[in-house]
Write a structure and sequence with these properties.
Elements: H1 2-10, E1 18-20, H2 26-34, E2 40-41, H3 44-50, H4 61-74, E3 81-84, H5 93-106, E4 110-114, H6 127-144, E5 149-153, H7 165-175, E6 179-182, H8 188-197, E7 202-205, H9 213-219, E8 223-225, H10 229-247, H11 260-266
Parallel strand pairs: 1-8, 2-3, 3-4, 4-5, 5-6, 6-7, 7-8
Helix pairs in contact: 2-4, 4-5, 5-6, 6-7
Length: 268
């Protein structure tokens, strides 16, 4: 695990950004791995949907960790896995530490930890409170002897407080975060300014209008996540296929489906 943790940390470079096509179950993780991924990341939304729950701290810790362990087992042992653990699956820093111990037991070497309070409609957590949660996560990892990559998610662009972004990033880094994840921003000038101001690897979330990876590298981005976008696209395909079958009675939507034999062999 120590080797995987070090490898994962080293993958964060603005000269060659780490691109993460986020998986949501064992099959999607194995498909992404087979495509040449240097690391596997989970999407909390995709995982929640797979397990029959909405995104936004609706899952229990045990359900999330059991699913994470299944994903880790599905990919090559040398491949680092990082887990999106939402806001930590706990009300207190001590509960966050419990989650981290479970993440490490599952075999993951990185996490995303967001600063939105628990609940999909909640606001930003107070900076000091989030620092305590990050410090608890770092402490639990240190106790286990693992250099856990803590990707501190700063939800200021989602919550209407972009002016707080850099200050929050600095506070989270001081508390023990490794990198900073700022979702919700696609403008090249804004991304460049954030990369310059934040003294740690910057992670952005791909969305409509996000520059290509090569351009993001030039802007100083070290990590690019596709987030729940791939899962959303997969479910959109299922919806199109269902609508076509129930209306036209045809199946053209499925013309480009993954070959059954290839996928089944991949999962063997």
């Amino acid at each position: 695990m120590t080797t995987r943790a070090a490898r994962f940390r080293a993958l964060h470079s603005a000269s060659a950004p780490l691109v993460l096509v986020n998986a949501w179950d064992a099959a999607s993780a194995r498909v992404v791995a087979a495509a040449g991924a240097p690391a596997i990341a989970t999407t909390s939304a995709g995982v929640a949907w797979t397990l029959g729950a909405p995104d936004g701290d609706a899952l229990t810790r045990d359900a999330a960790l059991e699913h994470l362990a299944r994903i880790v087992r599905a990919v090559p042992a040398e491949l680092p896995v990082t887990a999106d653990i939402e806001s930590g699956f706990g009300e207190t820093p001590a509960e966050v530490a419990t989650t981290i111990r479970g993440v490490l037991e599952a075999g993951a070497v990185g996490i995303n930890l967001e600063d939105t309070e628990r609940g999909a409609t909640a606001g930003l957590r107070a900076v000091a409170a989030q620092q305590e949660r990050i410090a608890a996560a770092r402490g639990a990892a240190d106790d286990a002897g693992v250099e856990l990559y803590i990707n501190a998610r700063v939800d200021t662009y989602f919550r209407g407080a972009p002016a707080e972004t850099v200050a929050r990033a600095e506070a989270y880094l001081a508390a023990g975060a490794t990198g900073i994840f700022v979702p919700g921003v696609a403008d090249a000038d804004t991304i460049a300014a954030l990369a310059k101001a934040i003294r740690a690897p910057l992670n952005v979330l791909a969305q409509d209008g996000t520059p290509p990876v090569a351009e993001l590298a030039a802007l100083g981005v070290a990590r690019v996540s596709l987030g729940s976008w791939v899962a959303e696209a997969a479910y959109a395909l299922a919806r199109r296929a269902a609508r076509e079958a129930y209306t036209a009675g045809t199946y053209t939507t499925l013309a480009d489906a993954y070959d059954f034999g290839e996928l089944n062999t991949l999962m063997s």
